[in-house]
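Hi there, hope your week has been kind to you so far. Thanks so much in advance, here it is:
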Amino acid sequence: MIRWWVAALQLAELFVSSVVHMLYGFYIFSTAVAGDLSLALNEYLFKPNMNVEVKEDVPRGPSANAENLPPIVLVRGIFGFGKGRLGGLSYFAGAEKKDERVLVPDLGSLTSTYDRARELFYYLKGGQVDYGEEHSKACGHSQFGRVYEQVPDPLLCN
């Protein structure tokens, strides 16, 4: 009889713990969605109407030219979501929309660090992802992956 009570208490604890974790996950997700929605609505409804002009006395040299600056590459962590996933949510809080130099590659979210590094290399340099024959046999996947035909930024090829 005591075993039944212990088993019932363990099941009840498991159920309560599951509900609490699911509610907390929903809270985190809904907070992110609400933040994204409020940001989008704020940008849409309240566009700033200011025309501010800044005059510089010091001429800019070639080193301060924005065209000569290297790109910024933001790589999300494992289990992070990429483009087109989770609706309009941005993994980097919209940083990729604020500057043209910001690159956000869409790498595998459940792949090994080795695979993600190879994918990132070929994303930046172009070509077909080659995981290596030995690694692909050891991990049980194909040797070749996605083809990146277009280099995202010509400065990366230097």
